[in-house]
Amino acid sequence: MSRIGKAPVAFPADVNVTADGEVITFKKGNNTRTLDTKGNVDFTIEDNTLTFASKSDAREHRAFWGTYRALAANIVKGLTEGFERKLEINGVGYRAAVQGKVLNLQLGFSHDINYDIPAGVDVSVDKNVITLKGVDNQQLGQMAAEIRAFRPPEPYKGKGVKYVEEHIVRKAGKTAKK
Questions:
Q1: What are the structural domains, with CATH classification, of the chain?
Q2: What does pTM read for this prediction?
Q3: Which of 3, 70, 79, 87 would give a disulfide with 28, using CB separation of 3.0 to 4.6 Å?
Q4: What whole-number distance in Å separates Cα of residue 143 and Cα of residue 145?
Q5: According to the lineage, what is the superkingdom (predicted)?
């Protein structure tokens, strides 16, 4: 039995949830998100709650049960509160700036890196912290991972792009022989 799948997903009255066959549509204002269950789970919508049930007792259907419930909960959270990721830039001469729909990164290479900001994501830069905000948790995580991959933090001085909550394990440098 899935403990996650059993929990109902409550959504506020301003979020409109409709079902069309196997596709669940979530709408709030001008933001619309869909979740295609591909017939792997059963679901019911009533009294501002969405409940999921396993299609059968097969291992695959029990695994999808909790997964689709978590995806639906993330969509509701994204539409109501939104998600946020923060990246920190450490290093002499390393900086970032938002120029229209492009994030300009100077990370110690001979050239600037221009990263196109996808639709639905708000990016702001405050000194050495890049803040990503949006309604899609997967899109934000992917974007943060791609930005971090341009210059991952190195273990000796900690220079590079890291998540704010990430801790870099430092290594001791070379020591001289006596």
A1: 3-80 (3.90.930.12), 83-163 (3.90.930.12)
A2: 0.86
A3: 79
A4: 5
A5: Bacteria
